[in-house]
Write a structure and sequence with these properties.
280 residues; Aminopeptidase; 2 domains; five-stranded antiparallel beta sheet; 31% helix; globular
């Protein structure tokens, strides 16, 4: 039977997770980098969340009814975000990834921008996305760690409340050019300066994004989160923030993986400090 591409369904969760996990763990091991998926159960949770999400659209490629590739696109906001895209190693080199991407890009026609993050060491996907019209707009590093030295007088951070929403929207628009403030602000925190939000984060992790007006505001936010969280912190940091990156490395953070932020369509270079998540 020929390989077919169709929308993903709940019944695809198990086989989609197996294909996705195998694809990522294989390429990551080949290049000596850690995988985003800690194990198959982690991949199953991710597949379940993406396939059942009301905010997204997912497609799979099947061979004899077996899922051998998948791709997802978040459609909650005008800026579309693609990822993850994966093809089982046994089926790579057949143009399946290109067909998946072409399907999603056709669906995204009319959107002002389509964005994704790409593993910088994966030259195959970098070539594919570039050939489809994506431009590399920022080099990123996934960093993770704990601060060795936390000052005694760390600026206090606060849970974001509904009355802070307008400030967060204004800050996000000022720094990035768009509004990405979610409907649910549970677990989000901010730095208040001069009675307004100067920095906020959905979480210092690869799943959350972070915005700050200045480097000092980002320092305050990261240190404030560190005083409240016992585990490690992580983020995707643009390498152009040289002083901030050096500060984190001097404090004990480690670079785990290089990535690229790629965009097809409109893009504004951040006017301030912005850590994307694994989508954009």
């Amino acid at each position: 039977m020929p390989i077919t591409i169709r929308q993903s369904f709940k019944t695809d969760i198990e086989t989609c997770a197996e294909s996705m996990y195998t694809a990522f763990i294989t390429v990551d091991k080949q290049h000596g980098f850690p995988s985003y998926f800690t194990d198959l159960n982690h991949a199953k949770d991710a597949a379940r969340n993406m396939i059942t999400s009301e905010q997204g659209y997912g497609i799979v490629a099947t061979d004899n009814n077996r899922v051998i590739a998948s791709a997802f696109m978040n459609e909650k906001r005008p800026i579309r975000a693609i990822g993850p895209v994966s093809v089982h190693p046994d089926f790579q080199g057949r143009g399946i990834g290109r067909k998946l991407m072409e399907h999603l890009l056709k669906r995204a026609q009319g959107a002002p921008s389509v964005r994704l993050t790409q593993d910088a060491f994966n030259t195959t996907s970098l070539s594919l996305y570039t050939s489809l019209g994506f431009a590399l707009v920022a080099s990123l590093v996934w960093i993770e760690g704990k601060f060795k030295n936390i000052p005694e007088n760390v600026p206090e951070i606060y849970p974001i409340r509904e009355e802070n929403r307008k400030d967060c929207i204004a800050l996000c628009k000022k720094v990035t050019g768009f509004n990405r403030v979610p409907d649910n602000l549970t677990n989000a925190h901010c730095v208040i300066k001069d009675q307004r939000v100067a920095a906020y984060t959905l979480s210092l992790s690869t799943d959350g994004y972070t915005v700050a007006e200045t480097e000092d505001d980002m320092h305050a936010l990261m240190l404030g989160i560190a005083t409240q969280k016992s585990g490690t912190l992580s983020c995707l940091m643009p390498t152009r923030y040289t002083h901030l990156l050096l500060w984190c490395l001097s404090e004990g953070f480690k670079i785990k993986k290089p990535l690229n932020l790629m965009v097809k369509g409109d893009y504004q270079q951040p006017n301030g400090f912005y850590f994307p998540n694994l989508l954009y």
